[in-house]
């Protein structure tokens, strides 16, 4: 597959970005997760500050992927958020003042409304601090769940790179690596290879796992020469193939031993083996 234009744009964005956020959709597949982690491991070797996020907890089935513990369900601490119990119409005015080295946020209750209680106040952080967003396997921004809904301004302001293989992808990025039919790890492998990003056996292992999983061990109708070329390349980079589990042999139930009957079997006649001559229905 020819991705020359996309690769050149990708290279330029990487050069100008130090903080990079890789995001997966809530419906992420094993192929997408493997690709995201491979890219994460590669970019961190460039001393980039990289975050990889998924809005829901990872599944047990992905636990073998290298770097799975790096996936976070929370993004950023750009904004300091103060939360308190609120009843509609209870606030008259919100203002602030600075006294020396102190910033004071002033919340004035409306006449007749209860005074705010300090014990009902909580604090948190939100907001991505990033220079570049890379989405993996996300057909739309909305498929990212809370990551998009809570950071829409960031998505409007920062460049986005889209990596996907779905025909339904809306290609919402500044750079779109969208190739229907290819596995996501196949696309990521080409991105890493074409831009000469760092690759080691861990990165290659994740990529091979994703390619093999998406293609059902290279048996689907979407497998092409590009698929085998990508698999061959990651194997050459030291990918470790998963060992096939031995087929479990089920133990067959043992046949019950039939106990000997107390009744003796009839004795064989002494002339049993002697030749016999029949005529009609009579024995001669």
UniProtKB/TrEMBL annotation:
Organism per entry = Candidatus Gottesmanbacteria bacterium GW2011_GWB1_43_11
Signal peptide range equals: none
What is the name attached to this protein's record? Answer: DHH family phosphoesterase
Extract the Gene3D superfamilies matched here: inorganic pyrophosphatase (n-terminal core)
Q: Which InterPro entries match?
A: DHH_sf, Oligoribo/pAp-PDE_c-di-AMP_PDE
State the residue spans of region: Disordered.
245-274
Highest rank taxon of the organism: Bacteria
């Amino acid at each position: 597959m020819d991705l020359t234009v996309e690769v050149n744009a990708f290279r330029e964005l990487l050069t100008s970005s130090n903080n990079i956020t890789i995001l997966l959709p809530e419906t992420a597949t094993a192929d997408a997760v493997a690709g995201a982690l491979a890219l994460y491991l590669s970019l961190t070797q460039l001393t980039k500050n990289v975050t990889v996020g998924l809005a829901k907890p990872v599944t047990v089935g992905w636990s073998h992927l290298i770097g799975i513990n790096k996936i976070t369900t929370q993004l950023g601490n750009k904004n300091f958020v103060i939360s308190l119990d609120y009843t509609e119409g209870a606030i008259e005015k919100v203002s602030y003042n600075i006294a020396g080295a102190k910033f004071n946020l002033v919340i004035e209750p409306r006449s007749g409304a209860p005074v705010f209680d300090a014990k009902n106040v909580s604090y948190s952080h939100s907001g991505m601090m990033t220079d570049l967003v890379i989405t993996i396997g996300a057909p739309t921004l909305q498929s990212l769940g809370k990551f998009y809904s809570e950071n829409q301004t960031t998505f409007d302001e920062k460049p986005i790179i889209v990596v996907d293989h779905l025909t339904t992808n809306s290609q919402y990025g500044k750079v779109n690596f969208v190739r229907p039919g290819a596995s996501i790890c196949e696309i990521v492998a080409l991105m890493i290879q074409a831009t000469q990003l760092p690759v080691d056996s861990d990165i290659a292992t994740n990529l091979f796992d994703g390619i093999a999983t998406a293609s059902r061990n290279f048996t689907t109708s979407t497998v092409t020469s590009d698929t085998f070329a990508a698999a061959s390349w990651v194997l050459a980079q030291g990918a470790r193939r998963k060992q096939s589990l031995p087929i479990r042999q089920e133990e067959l139930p043992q046949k019950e031993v039939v106990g000997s009957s107390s009744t003796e079997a009839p004795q064989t006649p002494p002339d049993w083996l002697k030749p016999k001559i029949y005529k009609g229905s009579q024995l001669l």
